């Protein structure tokens, strides 16, 4: 293997069941992980659950359940959901696991020893709905209501342990300057930078009087470590073993805009503080925090009060109707990856499915396999080294973007080129004329070869159907990738479809969807 790659998702709160937001981020992370796996990198992709929040305790109590029981149930719901949506994560971490709790205790003790964590008193505006304090200026700006949920803030005074965030403003600004890619997209980086320039206060990292669901502060068990500090450390605790340490630092923390501050400022500052310790100096800063935007549903913000979350049941219906690949493809290509929110609307789903999958990928594969069957007995006698389509394939350059997902768009464009090439060269017409067999074979080889190359680009988003195509071509890519021997660069070079290879016919990969209504 030629290198390693580590991508994480947020760990999700277990007060509720999963919905589209969670499936989305995890599907995008899975797609990114696959773009690296097919390159042969040693990939570690992590997801999991954040369990020590007060709202988990409340949600369990409302149902008359033990907190642990409710947490177990929902953690299992997340794990099952991700499996059901084809996520191939390498680990699923729960913050209630001993491996995580011990790690958090050790880290906090080490930070106390350096003076980055100290006992003090805090008074401020608390946003109970987000479990965070809102700085004075921001609280005022939002009329003393939560900037996220709009619920009233409450004035709170407590004895807390603090993290010396104030000591890291200059270092954070310097880091952002030296590594402009650290926070993406660029607009998010600018927001973060502007907020750091307003000044950084120390942050409370413990609470008292909230029962005992959480990680106890080492040496002072009346204090529980604040859920966010506990949660962020999951990214490191998951790889804190001998066998996994080489995965650190994470290449990408994929998150959404709601939790940008914690990931882009508090987390790297904690890691900077840990650089001073002996035991945790291995925790260098991650490569990138990528913060996407939000899905809304049929034009409206999703909220509990509107009860319009696109929930698991709804996502399952899409999967069962259009196929898992279609759902993944829609999420990845139409989702809120940039700074705008995206609308999850049925009509849009059907339009994208029919245009890109049924009429493009599915149609090209069936056309080319039908003609190959009819005119070439399903086999390519020789590798075609030169031709117009090859030239087009080699000239096509698409920016892969910070997450590598531009590759999926490139795959789709390659398929469109096959369609265009069939339209201009008309092999079905040539096949009716005598003496033109050679030309037909040259055209169809180029078409199949381009589809093969396209499939390598599309696989991260469409793993099931691209693997089906590979079976029809008799190519062992799926097995090679699973064995850690992906070789995207070599495989995607022209000529990989060997002489004698075939392209078997089979059922449509993406049958056109017609509304029964
Ligand atoms: N537990 C914290 C994260 C700790 S990470 C160290 C948390 N959990 S959460 O369950 O609320 O999940 C938030 C994340 O879920 C978002 O950052 C995003 O990845 C995903 N989404 C939740 N709702 C979403 C949408 N409506 N649209 C897209 N993704 C969203 O915050």
SSE order and pairing:
Blueprint: E1 4-13, H1 20-37, E2 42-50, H2 54-62, H3 67-84, E3 91-94, H4 98-114, E4 117-127, E5 132-134, H5 136-141, E6 154-163, H6 169-178, E7 183-184, H7 186-197, E8 203-204, E9 206-208, E10 216-217, E11 220-225, H8 227-232, H9 234-237, E12 252-256, H10 260-274, E13 288-292, E14 295-297, H11 312-322, H12 324-334, E15 342-344, H13 346-376, H14 388-395, H15 406-425, H16 427-430, H17 437-458, H18 463-473, H19 477-482, H20 488-491
Parallel strand pairs: 1-2, 1-12, 2-3, 7-13, 12-13, 14-15
Antiparallel strand pairs: 4-5, 4-6, 6-8, 9-11, 10-11
This protein binds 5'-O-[(L-methionyl)-sulphamoyl]adenosine (MSP).
Short description:
The chain has 517 residues and is an alpha/beta fold. It contains 20 helices and 15 strands.
Description:
By secondary structure, the chain is of the alpha/beta class. The protein folds into two domains: 4-292, HUPs (Rossmann fold, 3-Layer(aba) Sandwich), CATH 3.40.50; 345-491, Isoleucyl-tRNA Synthetase, Domain 1 (Orthogonal Bundle), CATH 1.10.730. It contains 20 helices and 15 strands. It has a six-stranded parallel β-sheet with strand order 3-2-1-12-13-7, sandwiched between helices. The protein has a four-stranded antiparallel β-sheet with strand order 5-4-6-8. Strand 4 and strand 5 (132-134) form a beta hairpin. The longest helix has 31 residues, at 346-376. The protein is elongated, with a radius of gyration of 26 Å. It starts with a strand and ends in a 26-residue tail after the last helix. 5'-O-[(L-methionyl)-sulphamoyl]adenosine is lined by residues 10-13, 21-22, 24-25, 50, 231-232, 234, 255-256, 258-259, 294-295, 302.
């Amino acid at each position: 293997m030629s290198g390693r790659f580590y991508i994480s998702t947020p760990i999700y709160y277990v007060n509720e069941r999963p919905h589209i937001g969670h499936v989305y981020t995890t599907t995008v992370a899975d797609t990114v992980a696959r773009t690296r796996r097919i390159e042969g990198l040693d990939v570690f992709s992590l997801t999991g659950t954040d369990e020590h929040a007060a709202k988990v305790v409340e949600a369990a109590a409302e149902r008359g359940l033990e907190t642990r029981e409710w947490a177990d149930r929902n953690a299992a719901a997340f794990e099952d959901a991700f499996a059901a949506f084809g996520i191939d994560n390498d680990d699923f971490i729960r913050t209630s696991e001993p491996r995580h709790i011990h790690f958090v205790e050790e880290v906090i003790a080490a930070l106390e020893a350096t003076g980055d964590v100290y006992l003090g008193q805090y008074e401020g505006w608390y946003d109970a709905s987000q479990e965070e304090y809102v700085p004075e200026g921001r609280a005022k700006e939002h009329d003393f209501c939560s900037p996220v949920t709009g619920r009233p803030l409450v004035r709170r005074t407590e004895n807390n342990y603090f993290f010396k965030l104030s000591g890291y403003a200059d270092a954070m600004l310097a880091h952002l300057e030296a590594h402009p890619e650290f926070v993406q997209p660029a607009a998010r980086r600018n927001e973060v930078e502007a907020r750091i320039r307003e000044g950084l206060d120390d942050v409370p990292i413990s609470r008292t009087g909230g029962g005992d669901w959480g990680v106890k502060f080492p040496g002072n068990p009346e204090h529980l470590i604040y859920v966010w500090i506990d949660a962020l450390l999951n990214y490191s605790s998951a790889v804190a073993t001998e066998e996994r340490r080489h995965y650190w630092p994470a290449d990408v923390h994929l998150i959404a805009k709601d939790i940008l501050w914690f990931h882009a400022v508090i987390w790297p500052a904690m890691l900077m503080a840990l650089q001073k310790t002996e035991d945790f100096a291995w925790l260098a800063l991650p490569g990138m925090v990528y913060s996407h935007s939000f899905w809304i549903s049929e034009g409206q913000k999703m909220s509990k009060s509107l009860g319009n979350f696109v929930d698991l049941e709804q996502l399952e219906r899409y999967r069962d109707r259009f196929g898992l690949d279609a759902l993944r493809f829609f999420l990845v290509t139409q989702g809120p990856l940039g700074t705008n929110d995206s609308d999850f609307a049925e009509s849009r789903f059907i339009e994208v499915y029919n245009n890109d999958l049924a009429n493009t990928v599915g149609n090209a594969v069936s056309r080319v396999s039908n003609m190959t069957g009819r005119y070439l007995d399903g086999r390519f006698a020789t590798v075609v080294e030169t031709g117009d389509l090859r030239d087009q394939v080699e000239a096509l350059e698409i920016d892969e973007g910070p997450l590598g997902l531009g590759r999926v768009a490139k795959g789709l464009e390659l398929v469109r080129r096959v369609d265009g090439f069939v339209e201009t060269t008309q092999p079905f017409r040539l096949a009716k004329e005598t003496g033109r067999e050679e030309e037909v074979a040259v055209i169809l080889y180029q078409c199949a070869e381009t589809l093969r190359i396209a499939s390598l680009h599309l696989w991260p988003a469409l793993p099931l159907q691209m693997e089906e195509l590979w079976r029809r071509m008799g190519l062992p890519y799926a097995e090679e990738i699973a064995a850690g021997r992906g070789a995207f660069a070599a495989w995607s070079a022209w000529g990989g479809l060997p002489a004698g290879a075939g392209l078997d016919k089979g059922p449509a990969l993406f049958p056109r969807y017609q509304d029964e209504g």
